[in-house]
Design brief:
Keywords: ATP-binding, Cell membrane, Membrane, Nucleotide-binding, Transport. With about 325 residues, this protein is an alpha/beta fold. The chain has one domain (about 5-90, about 170-320): P-loop containing nucleotide triphosphate hydrolases (Rossmann fold, 3-Layer(aba) Sandwich). The chain has helices at about 45-55, 80-85, 100, 110-120, 125-140, 145-150, 155-170, 185-205, 215-220, 240-245, 250-255, 295-300, 320; strands at about 5-15, 20-30, 35-40, 60-70, 75, 90-95, 175-180, 205-210, 225-230, 230-240, 305-310, 310-315. The structure holds iron/sulfur cluster and magnesium ion. Magnesium ion binds near residues 43, 47 and 48.
Length: about 325
């Protein structure tokens, strides 16, 4: 499979009252056509900022300082806001945890569904209405004709989330970025929404970047997993390899914490301590203040990325210190 999205050494920083702080500290990853990459980590680790960087939707005090975002052969970092607008909603779409922030409360569902269709497919209003109704049917919304005339507040949370997915999938995007798309929903609706995304992925080879803190969701939908901590990628691999042979102490902690699907505020209790603030200076491994295995060198030296096996990579000094967990000592040079 070829790379649809290839992000290389991306640094995203924000201007704050205390000066410039980096929320994403030089991460590289890819999403291939027809695969789901799950990005996991605690809230505040940089997962959402990573996806907003890719979409060109950073708040005005944020910007990409370094690196490249290759999408479908073009570097999005070099794109103008106008060029980004042209591909957003067409070639790449995003869905969020809270559909009310993405849906416009004063416009009908029909208007919001027709808009991307008319803009990107250059079709007229009546054809867009027809396709809009079909899309609502596809996402399992009963009485779609009636729904087209309603406003977001007239729909339940689960319905709104389906509408948002219908809008995101309207133009059959090559890439879908889903940021905690099911966190606020009950388990049944959560499963239906995940199925919808999986269907679109399988039907036309859409690439999916799914941001979640729920390892249950990861187990269900991921082909590959990227674990982030404090603005860095600390482990990456295919889903089997991450679940069966996790290497980073933080990943092990994530897997030990039992996800409670009913609790949107679920915390990773298995890992004591909390994420550092993004402006906090931490030398060496950024996880060392919380790591039960921290060694002296961890406090001063940043670990390189080691290849565990195949595509499985980890950033942790234990790869050298502990023969038991060390499959190979090869490091990644990029
Ligand atoms: Fe823990 Fe050291 Fe590995 Fe960091 S490099 S995760 S502190 S053992
Ligand atoms: Mg977030």
């Amino acid at each position: 499979k070829t790379d649809l999205l290839y992000v290389k050494n991306m640094v995203t920083a924000f201007r704050t009252a205390n000066g410039e702080v980096s929320a994403v500290r030089g991460i590289s990853f890819s999403v291939k056509k027809g695969e789901t990459l799950c990005v996991v980590g605690e809230s505040g680790c940089g997962k959402s900022i990573t996806s907003l960087s890719v979409m060109g939707l950073l708040p005005s005090n944020g910007s990409i300082k370094e690196g490249s975002i290759e999408f479908d052969g073009n570097d999005l970092v070099a794109y103008s806001p106008e060029q980004l607008r042209k591909i957003r909603g067409k070639d790449m779409s995003m869905i969020f945890q809270e559909p009310m922030t993405a849906l416009n409360p004063v416009l009908t569902i029909g208007y919001q569904l027709r808009e991307p269709l008319m803009l990107h497919k250059q079709i007229g209003k009546s054809e867009a209405t027809k396709q809009g109704i079909d899309l609502l049917k596809q996402v399992g919304i009963p009485y779609p004709e009636k729904r087209m005339k309603q406003y977001p507040h007239e729909l339940s949370g689960g319905m709104r989330q389906r509408v948002m997915i219908a809008i995101a999938l309207a133009c059959s995007p090559k890439l879908l970025i889903a940021d905690e798309p099911t966190t606020a929903l009950d388990v049944t609706i959560q499963a239906q929404i995940l199925d919808l995304i999986q269907d679109a992925k399988e039907q036309y080879g859409m690439g999916v970047m799914m941001i979640t803190h729920d390892m249950g969701v990861v187990a269900e939908v991921a082909d590959r997993v990227m674990v982030m901590y404090a603005g860095e990628k600390i482990e990456e691999g295919n889903v089997e390899s991450i679940f069966e042979n996790p290497q980073h102490p933080y990943t092990k902690g994530l897997l030990n914490s039992v996800p409670n699907l009913d609790d949107p505020d679920f915390e990773l209790e298995a890992i004591p301590g909390s994420l550092p603030n993004i402006d906090e200076q931490i030398s060496g491994c950024r996880f060392h203040p919380r790591c039960p295995y921290a060694m002296d060198r961890c406090k001063s030296e940043t670990p390189p990325e080691y290849i565990v096996a195949g595509e499985h990579k980890v950033k942790c000094w234990l790869q050298e210190a502990d023969e038991d967990v060390c499959t190979t000592r090869e490091t990644v040079h990029s």
